[in-house]
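User: Before I run my own analysis I want an independent prediction to cross-check against. Here's the chain; please return only the structure tokens and, at the end, one sentence I can use as a sanity check.
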Amino acid sequence: MMPKEPLFVIDRWFPSAKTCSSCGVVKETLSLKERVFSCECGLILDRDLNASIKCDSFSLNREIGGRLALVSNLTKG
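Assistant: Structure tokens:
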């Protein structure tokens, strides 16, 4: 039997692809055809890798860029 682990659900409209995983700055625009995320802090990453790092770093009720990133903490099982 697997131990119960918390499952965090990120707001569907949270701009994870537009938010820098290093400094937290949110870009105004980032088109779908732009595959490289580059930030004024110097971070340059694949946009999907940047978004996945951002999502992985969230914890319950953590506020990023003035918006709550997570909306619920569910328990599996």
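Sanity check: Residues 4 and 66 are 31 Å apart (CA to CA).
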